[in-house]
UniProtKB/TrEMBL annotation:
<dbReference type="InterPro" id="IPR036013">
    <property type="entry name" value="Band_7/SPFH_dom_sf"/>
</dbReference>
<keyword id="KW-0472">Membrane</keyword>
<keyword id="KW-1133">Transmembrane helix</keyword>
<comment type="similarity">
    <text>Belongs to the band 7/mec-2 family. HflC subfamily.</text>
</comment>
<dbReference type="InterPro" id="IPR010200">
    <property type="entry name" value="HflC"/>
</dbReference>
<dbReference type="GO" id="GO:0016020">
    <property type="term" value="C:membrane"/>
</dbReference>
<feature type="domain" description="Band 7">
    <location>
        <begin position="21"/>
        <end position="206"/>
    </location>
</feature>
<dbReference type="Pfam" id="PF01145">
    <property type="entry name" value="Band_7"/>
</dbReference>
<keyword id="KW-0812">Transmembrane</keyword>
<dbReference type="InterPro" id="IPR001107">
    <property type="entry name" value="Band_7"/>
</dbReference>
<comment type="function">
    <text>HflC and HflK could regulate a protease.</text>
</comment>
<protein>
    <recommendedName>
        <fullName>Protein HflC</fullName>
    </recommendedName>
</protein>
Length: 311
């Protein structure tokens, strides 16, 4: 009886081991290829559930069904116009045929290595076939606001652009992975940077453009300042001329009024008229002569009459 119990226990353990070795679970994120002595058997399993295989003989090889990432190593790449740039790339890929994937690449490490070769090679080829502007720019953008056409002239026209280059690399890579059981879902330039020599050239060009813009603005400002100063001088002379004319007219009117008042005041008698003539003569002497002046006066002159009386 005891021996029978031991045999049943041993048999149960063997059955559990066999079941454990033959049953396997496929989850939503998995796809499985069954191999027997290293060779695939049957079709790949892509639906989730519980499955069975021959214990100890067959092996379940699990592969990701989800999207996987690929990060390229930053490389120094020459462009068509012989300028070097550092390019850092990334991509997303997926196993779409696990059986073919196993036959060609065996595992994900082998896939990553193969993708390295494909994407790095295509990146170099397509960048080398285009000028640097095609790689770093996406479109022929127009400056949003500019009072001068200098900035617009500095934007070299592109015909391909970064987005199209990325798409061309993606298309080329997928043609090369058609028989590998994988698909490159997306490819992007993570970062593009100039090498030091190109950076210096770019900064020098930027400074030159800014100096040209500054010189043009400065020239336009000087021209506007000259125009404003010219208008100011003209307006100032015009104002001064009008003011002088008005002042002379006022002075003339004042002198006429004063002369009229004087005439009325001094015309009342012969004595007042003589006094007025005398005062005017004295004013003339004061304004005309000084200690160094020599004059010749006719005896018929009114001034001579007063000078003679002074003797």
């Amino acid at each position: 009886m005891k021996t029978k119990s031991i045999l049943i226990t041993i048999l149960s353990i063997i059955i559990l081991i066999v079941l454990n070795s033959s049953a396997f679970v496929v989850e939503e994120k998995d796809q499985v290829v069954i191999t027997q002595f290293g060779k695939p058997v049957g079709e790949a399993i892509i639906e989730p559930g519980v499955y069975f295989k021959l214990p100890f003989v067959q092996v379940a090889n699990y592969f990701e069904k989800r999207y996987m990432e690929w990060n390229g190593a930053p490389n120094q790449v020459p462009t068509k116009d012989k300028k070097f740039i550092f390019v850092d790339t990334y991509a997303r890929w997926q196993i779409i045929d696990p059986l073919q994937f196993f036959k060609r690449l065996t595992n994900e490490r082998g896939a990553q290595s193969r993708i390295d070769d494909i994407l790095d090679g295509d990146t170099r080829n397509f960048i080398a076939n285009n000028d640097i502007e095609e790689t770093v720019r996406t479109s022929n953008r127009i400056p949003e606001s500019s009072d001068t056409d200098i900035i617009g002239d500095s934007l070299v026209k592109i015909y391909v652009g970064r987005d199209k280059i990325q798409q061309m690399i993606l298309n080329s890579a997928n043609k090369q992975t058609e028989d590998l059981g994988i698909k490159i879902l997306d490819f992007r330039f993570k970062r593009i940077n100039y090498v030091q020599e190109v950076q210096d050239q770019v900064y020098k060009r930027m400074k030159s453009e800014r100096f040209r813009i500054a010189d043009k603005f400065r020239s336009e400002g000087q021209g506007e300042a000259s125009r404003i100063n010219g208008e100011k001088e003209r307006e100032l002379k015009n104002i001064q001329s009008l003011a002088f004319r008005d002042a002379e007219m006022i002075k003339g009117k004042a002198d006429a009024t004063a002369a009229s008042i004087y005439a009325k005041a001094y015309d009342k008698s012969s004595q007042s008229r003589n006094l007025y003539g005398f005062l005017k003569s004295m004013e003339t002497f004061e304004k005309t002569f000084d200690g160094k002046t020599s004059i010749f006066i006719s005896t018929d002159s009114e001034l001579y009459k007063y000078l003679k009386k002074m003797d």
